[in-house]
Design goal:
Chain A: Its main location: membrane. Chain A: Pfam families: ABC_tran. Chain A: This is Iron complex transport system ATP-binding protein. Chain A: One of its GO terms (biological process) is iron ion transport. The complex is a heterodimer. Chain A has a domain at 80-157. Chain A contains ten helices and eleven strands. Chain A has helices at residues 42-49, 72-76, 94-100, 114-126, 142-155, 172-189, 200-206, 224-230, 232-236, 249-252; strands spanning 4-13, 16-22, 25-26, 31-36, 57-62, 65-66, 79-82, 160-164, 192-196, 209-213, 220-222. Chain A has a six-stranded mixed β-sheet, sandwiched between helices. In chain A, strands 1, 2, 3, 5 and 6 form a five-stranded antiparallel β-sheet that branches. In chain A, α3 packs parallel to α5 and α4 (114-126) runs antiparallel to α5 (142-155). Chain A is globular. Chain B is mainly α. Chain B has one domain (2-337): Orthogonal Bundle (ABC transporter involved in vitamin B12 uptake, BtuC), CATH 1.10.3470. In chain B, α4 runs antiparallel to α6 (119-143). Classes of the chains: A alpha/beta, B mainly alpha.
């Protein structure tokens, strides 16, 4: 599989540039966490990577091909996204939501073929949302809802999945659930997964790579342990009166011995 | 689920037949086939009533009910707003303005040598009015990105055209104002067989278009961002939804007047009964449901014993209002029915 990468990318809205000269590469089979303060441009970067908004300059490409020239339907089979947008009112159930992930594959009326059904079932199984398959979205807890959204993105069967703060509002058990789910998806499907998040501890524990975004600075990439040791993580979360000590972060969360 | 669909279909057929036989003159139901195809000498009067009045009226009720309910459904999903209906884009306001120009501006036009005032030109005015508004809405939809803005632009149009109409009313004579008001009451009885021959193909075109909207509408439910990420052509589907809605709502308004309420209530009732958000089920169900509701309303509006048929819009709102309130109270929350 090819990589999703950017060259000389500037992102922002209208004339306002948020980050410039961004050069990144998301590889298949990797879980990458995008970390940075509020307002640093994490969401904008994700939206630009997914082709939901135009870059100010530079380009996003899959392999050799700029996503600008990729057919809309084809792109929908390459990059999936989970945003922070609310799906307010919904009488839809979880199965129907996951089935919408098959949109780029189904015919003009959205008929599910055998392959679509299999993918939907598989995604529901992997995200362990079988028990709420027929529950209406309006009745779900935040944790259940996010897992259903991941299942929808999985059903879309893209090479890359981008997620914007998927664990916001979740408790620690659900956050752990989500991150271990990401790791499992990565291992089983070899997809490239990019998660923007504020979970330092979980990112350090689960991510293969961290992308650190800071205001007016180039994005710093590297393995979590290296970035802790170099002090890069602490630097992007600079505070006047406090500092963050991440030396114990990796051992804060560990797998149980008998597992 | 299947039961309620079968029941609704059956109800529609029964009501259709009832609409044909009930009225100031009762048609014997057992002779209906005979009356239609090989009437005896003494049945000719009945045949005249059925073929020239009752049948076109019943067909118009089914066509209008289904079309309005569908356009309401499209607008509610498109704007993700339970208050939206077929006329939120200003289609009926445009039609009203067109009709007002024809009816109230009659004096003016006759001065320059044009003569208006027949039913045909009423329809013509309505078609022209709604088409112009449709063009303006399409123009603005290319200018604004978010749909709420479009909704507000539609509302502004309604207010502005309403104001224009009141200015025209102010300068018109009472007879003209009355004929304009009669049009705004909505009327299925004025639709003739020859008009149906023009109206039905337009509506059928809209209904076929509706089937192609199923997939886009379903993905619209989870928001534009996800719709775009799923590979939907947002621009194209926006125009398609607006065009099909304008076609259905505009054609009905032109021929039957601005029939209130069906387009707002039909989709809500369909969603609540089916308890689903899937347009594959909602579209046929909401369509037939709209037809059923309008057939009932039309039946009530000319119940035996009434000297003449009551204004259709009064019936749709009087019957429908309480029904929707009851449904909302029962479901507690309308927002969750999307």
């Amino acid at each position: 599989m090819e990589t999703l990468h950017t060259t000389g990318l500037s992102i922002g809205y209208d004339k306002k540039c948020i980050a410039s000269d961004v050069n990144l590469a998301l590889r298949p089979g990797k879980l990458v966490c995008l970390i940075g303060q509020n307002g640093v441009g994490k969401s904008t970067l994700l939206r630009t990577l997914a082709g939901l908004q135009e870059p100010l300059s530079g380009e996003v490409a899959i392999g050799e091909e700029s996503i600008k020239v990729v057919d809309r339907r084809e792109l929908a089979r390459k990059i999936g996204i989970i945003t922070t947008d609310k799906i307010g009112m919904s009488n839809m159930n979880v199965r129907e939501l996951v089935a919408l992930g098959r949109f780029p594959y189904t015919n003009w009326i959205g008929k599910e073929e055998l392959e679509d059904r299999a993918k939907i079932e598989e995604s529901i199984d992997l995200c362990k949302v079988n028990y709420i398959e027929n529950a209406k979205l309006g009745t779900l807890s935040d944790g259940q809802f996010q897992k259903a959204m991941v299942a929808r993105a999985l059903a879309q069967d893209t090479d890359f999945i981008l997620m914007d703060e998927p664990t916001a509002h979740l408790d620690i058990v659900n956050r752990l659930d989500m991150f271990s789910l990401f790791a499992q998806i990565k291992a089983q499907t070899n997809k490239g997964i990019l998660v923007s998040t504020h979970e330092l501890d979980l990112s350090i524990r689960f991510a293969d790579e961290l992308w650190l975004m800071d205001f007016n600075q180039p994005v710093v990439c590297g393995a979590p342990q290296d970035l802790i040791e170099s002090g890069a993580i602490s630097r992007i979360f600079h505070h006047e009166d406090y500092e963050i000590d991440l030396t114990i972060a990796h051992s804060m969360i560990r797998a149980k011995r008998d597992k | 689920m299947l039961k309620s669909k079968l029941f609704l279909g059956l109800l529609c057929v029964v009501l259709f037949i009832l609409n044909i036989i009930v009225g100031s003159v009762w048609i014997p139901v057992q002779d209906l086939i005979e009356i239609l195809f090989s009437p005896a000498e003494d049945q000719m009067v009945w045949q005249n009533i059925v073929v020239n009045y009752r049948l076109p009226r019943a067909i118009a009720a089914v066509a209008a009910g289904a079309s309005l309910s569908l356009s309401g459904l499209f607008m509610q999903t498109f704007f993700r707003n339970p208050l939206a209906g077929p006329f939120v884009l200003g289609i009926s306001s445009g039609a009203s303005l067109g009709v007002a120009v024809v009816v109230l501006g009659g004096t003016f036009f006759s001065l320059v040598g044009w003569s208006f005032g027949s039913d045909i030109s009423l329809t013509f005015g309505a078609i022209l009015g709604s088409f112009l508004v449709f063009l303006v809405v399409i123009y603005f939809s290319t200018k604004v990105a978010d749909y709420t803005s479009l909704l507000i632009i539609g509302l502004m149009f309604s207010s502005a055209t309403g104001a224009l109409v009141s200015v025209m009313q102010f300068f018109s004579n009472p007879e003209d104002i009355q004929s304009y008001l009669l049009w705004t009451f909505g009327d299925l009885g004025s639709v003739t067989m020859s008009e149906l021959r023009l109206l039905l193909p337009i509506l059928i075109l809209g209904w076929i278009g509706s089937v192609f909207l199923i997939k886009p509408l379903n993905i619209y439910l989870i928001g534009n961002t996800y719709a775009k990420n799923a590979g939907l052509n947002l621009e194209l589907s926006k125009y398609a939804i607006i065009t099909v809605t304008a076609l259905l709502a505009g054609a009905i308004t032109a021929y039957c007047g601005p029939i209130a309420f069906i387009g707002l209530a039909g989709p809500h009732i369909a969603r609540m009964i089916l308890d689903t958000a899937d347009h594959r089920q909602l579209i046929p169900y909401a369509g037939i449901l709209g037809a059923v509701v309008l057939l009932i309303c039309d039946l009530v509006s000319r119940l035996p014993g009434l000297p003449q048929s009551l204004p259709l819009n009064a019936i749709t709102s009087l019957l429908g209002g309480p029904l929707v309130i009851w449904l909302i109270v029962k479901k507690k929350n309308l927002q969750n029915s999307f």
